[in-house]
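Human: Not sure, check this?
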Amino acid sequence: MSVATLDKIIVTTDGACLGNPGPGGWAALLRFNKREKMISGGEADSTNNRMELMAVIEGLAALKRRCSVTIVTDSQYVINGFQEGWVKKWEANGWKTAAKKPVKNQDLWESLLAHVEQHHVKWEWVKGHSGHPDNERVDEEARTQAEKFR
């Protein structure tokens, strides 16, 4: 199936942590045409980076078929993992960093990589807390989820 025939989905994601580590929350807003769906969750003990990764993983996991997906995130950590090629380098190096140390959040990076490979994914970075309406919505929801574990 060509990219042109795939459904076009926008997934806006965010993660939050009250303390780092601490109670964490994530949220993903999925948009398809005029429809939208907010999904979210959290953990009692997490980190901000883990919640940022979880938001993207769960957003992609919610898709029922191969799609053309634009991931909108304020996480440089997640964006750089793909746009700077970190994930592929880590995978090729047996999940070790350039300094030969274990990659943090390997379990989530592996899961995210598997989900990304099922779709045609474009990455879009937005500055957090800058008035982007969907980013503000997922930020608020991620914080709400984290508060549940406080």
Summary: The mean pLDDT is 96. Residues 3-79+120-147 form a domain with the Nucleotidyltransferase; domain 5 fold (CATH 3.30.420.10). The longest strand covers residues 35-46. The chain has one domain: 3-79+120-147.
